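Q: A reviewer asked whether we had any structural model of the full assembly, not just the individual parts. We don't, so I'm hoping you can provide one. Inputs are below.
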Amino acid sequence: MDNNVILTMRGISMTFPGVKALDNVDFTLRRGEIHALMGENGAGKSTLIKCLTGINAFEAGEIHVEGIQGAVVNHSTLDAQKKGISTVYQEINLCPNLSVAENLFIGREPKNKLGFINWREMIKRSEKIMKDLDMPVDVTQNLEEYSLALQQMIAIARAVDMDCKVLILDEPTSSLDDSEVEKLFKLMNQLKAKGVGIVFVTHFLEQVYTVCDRITVLRNGQLVGEYPIADLPRVKLVAAMMGKDFDDLASIKSEEAPVFTDEDILIDAKGMSHKGTIKPFDLQIHKGEVVGLTGLLGSGRSELARVIYGADKNQTGVLKVNGKEIKVNAPIDAMNLGMGLLPDDRKAEGIIGDLSVRENIILAMQAKRGVFRLLPMSKQIEIADEYIKLLQIKTASRETLICQLSGGNQQKVILARWLATNPDFLILDEPTRGIDIGTKTEIQKLVLKLAGEGKSLIFISSEIEEMLRTCTKLAVLRDGEKVGEITESLSQETVMKAIAGGGDTNE
Amino acid sequence: MKKIKINSNTLLLLITIALFVVMYAVGCILYSDKGFTNLQTFLNLLINNAGLLCVACGMTCVMLTGGIDISVGSLIALDCMLLAVGMERWNQNPILLCILVLAVGVVFGLVQGFCVGYLKIQPFIVTMAGMFFARGMTAVICTDQVSISNKFFVSLAQMKISIPFGAVTNRRGVLQIPFIRITVVIALVVLVLVFLMLRYTKFGRSLYAVGGNESSAVMMGLDVKRTKLKAYVLSSFLCSIGGICFCLNTMSGNVQQAKGLEMDAIASAVIGGTLLTGGVGNVIGSFFGVLINGTISTLVKTNGKLLSSWSSIAVAALLCFFIVLQSVFAKIKDSKK
Amino acid sequence: MNNIKKLTSKALFLPIFCMLLVMAANIIYDAANGNFALNFFTISVRNGVLYGRLIDILNRGSEIAILSIGMTLVVSSSAGTDISVGSVMSLAASFCCMLLAGYGTAATTELAVPLLVGVLGGILLACVCGAFNGFLVAYLNVQPMVATLILFSAARAIGLLCCNNLIVYVRNDSFKMFGGYLGFIPTPIVIAAGCILVMAILLKKTALGLYIQSVGINKKASRIAGLNSGKIIFLCYIVCGLMAGIAGIVASSRISSADSNNIGLNYELDAILAVALGGNSLGGGKFNLAGSVIGAYTIQAITTTLFALGVSSDQAPVYKAIIVIIIVAIQAPPFNAWVKRLSAKRALAKGGV
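A: Here is a predicted structure for the entire assembly that you could use as a starting point for your response.
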């Protein structure tokens, strides 16, 4: 074995109910390297990391860490930390109600002779850490006073200060701006020089090629391969991540672009906004049109859709549906106008876990009918069966609890819920996240079919390819603002450029 | 000195202190003829609420973790009954009984803490069961009212500790030296110790971390289950100390004793700026909460004409007001993000 | 083994199992004391009314059964319990008696206002209390048990104010009827049956049950699916208040007085226990009304049995508290995980041999 190797994972497998999340995956990390772990949503990146840090238990395989005899099984993050494996997640795992200094030192506070916390020492050391990283932070202030980006940097600072051998950064850059990303990279390179092995999970190809030495690609829970960065140019990386299915999918869209006239406008938003999440925007959607919202995570793409739907309150501007100005105070108002929203966080906002597939399907329809007009049971069964068949939902029976279904099938149930209401306008927020390729294609085909029936759709996805295949118009968002629309020459390149924002690099 | 930023949390504490000052001032103006302005009235406030203060300190610790402990009132009744029956019926040594009472508190807390921390049952359910259990056990021990006449205990209860200033001559010309009782000393020591513990020990800071964001606390390597267990043990232990203070005040055991005290303790903590969601709060705030609580009942008592239920209604109303205030602050904070 | 598993996984297994357990205990107790072993089940007619231990349990258990209806909804929709029901019962009783007797009157045989006004007044005030709780929980996002803690202690105090610190006696036959007999059946049984029936029909014929469960399981998702979760939770608390009001009137009518300090004492524990015994998770979500009702009568059977064994009403909560903790501990996920691990280990050991 290579002397430089500090972490090896061999043949890791694990299953979630109904889905093989990881299938015989290997991963090797060497001393002083930055190793990108790449893959589409649902490829198994997070699961692999969770197996390593002890959040998920894996079923087969072995983990070896340098300096530790025998196979390592971590039962908790704490376990992993003790073995020199620190993790910084996309969502910040610090306590907002404590000071920055405490967040850096909690669990290992400097103490005085009596065993009490030595605040002066703690603050002094914190200030030094912050100064070393060139971060303008008053360490005595509560963490919640600082921006998400700074909080993320503080989380990294904490992990770094704990003398880790392996540092895992799980999508750490999604809430950082360019200059902050640069600082982070500087920090990563410093650590690399010290011999720390860094696992870097990200969606941004650009960043991978800026800092990484090596790439491991996963697809659908399986290992595609491990490559030195020089051997894997960008195009090949994308191909590795997407696999062969790429070509099959490309052909589902018809060649001729539909033509829309002003009379066809269904949704006309003018100056709508929600404080703190999305700045005022205009958006027009025609009947039979599929509009894609694109931008990075947190750019406001979900939030824009939520404001139209009334899930977040519209605070300025007006919304016209079919030319009539209307007010949407709650989702039910939007539903009565023929809207539907498939939220991006399926577990938190989509499924009603302990209810059956049938109840989940008829829920929105029932909500539209009102509490006193209960759908007769025979009708409920009819509708449920119809959609289970139509969308090929794999479930033991219509009375099975939805939480027992796999992710893709859960998503289909939620789709069925909205299709049952026969909407004119459907918002699909990341409908294909975390589900298998086959289902993805089905959903994309369905989107085009619905559009063909004259329904309007908003389609949001972090996979640009997917949107190029389905959308006729793309609205581009950046930093909570709609910055433009692309209707012609839709290609990966133009979209990427629009998302990145071209010239203005100093923001 | 760095300037202290006023955020919504410190604002809550400031409101509380201002409220206390205003209330006391109103009392002084309205009832100056009834001796409200004397130092002794203030000291009586401490004497009457020494037990509550201990309980409120424990409650604050539990509430910091985002939990709650409504078993305290009943546990005090159990403590008092144990002391009273122990001394009067079983003829046991008061000191031994005090130790027994403290041990009961610890065991009680261990069970509750285990259920909350390790079995992850809602704190309210657990402590509600604890509340009924303790009250029931009190009745199992004895259903009568038992007065304490143990000499040692009586002398302990009647011991006056004089304060060297603030003496006044009353109308008859007798010099009255202000005094406090031993319970006040115990309560203040508890207050200071808990304050220091919250600020300077790992356990104290863990309480804040757990309440601030439980999953983060786990990720940062804190033993959340154990922290919660300890919090409930501490609460029940402090509650037992409070029970001893309470008993020194009332000198009796009774099934109905300290009914509704959990409400007073929770109200004191909430009024003092402890957030129900956990993570924010301080025993200093709770101290003022207790004082406000005491002032209300003193005002009602001094008035003489009002029914005593007014004081519990006033406390409930105040609790309600502060809960609404917290909720509004939380909403403002959310909308800012 | 499989059959046992199938049986225990049935929704009504827990309440019925407990009920049978209590009955068995009674039979053994009677037999041991040399009484007729089936004493528990004998129903006879004395003085023109039904008589028997079973009837007594049904009668005395009425209040808990009524309360458990409201409590079930509250638990399901908001994942919290309403601990003010006992106090609200007492407040409704006090207010009703105050209206009937006139303020400041300690005892009366004549009604100051028509019976209906007094009763409806009491029930209405209870609904207002429920609305107050509901407002705090549904619209201000206060944890249910903290919100209801306010009225838990304040409602009795308000009741005392209503009655001017007195125990108001209303010795009037028409008022006594609610706690007395309707023909040969005790009225409380009829009232409880009525409440249960109305609620059962409401849940069967409208989408209310689906709405409540949906909100209880996932508030955010329900909102996206077009439900007004705030309104639904609010409604549940009002229903809970309403039920507490009705139970309060019944309890007050039984003793023809409004004893603020004792009416509904410890009933919140009984009501919550009934819900838990009914196989409903106190963590909210799915509910089973029939389970709660059976649970309620089981509680009363336990209470009656305890009394028969010489346990005083002050001491009974000790046993009930232990039962509550055992039930919720069994429901707790960590406990289940532990049991699973244990059985897996046992299976492993068997395989090894």
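A: Points you may want to mention in the reply: Chain A has 18 helices and 19 strands. The domain at 245-338+423-502 of chain A is CATH 3.40.50.300 (Rossmann fold).
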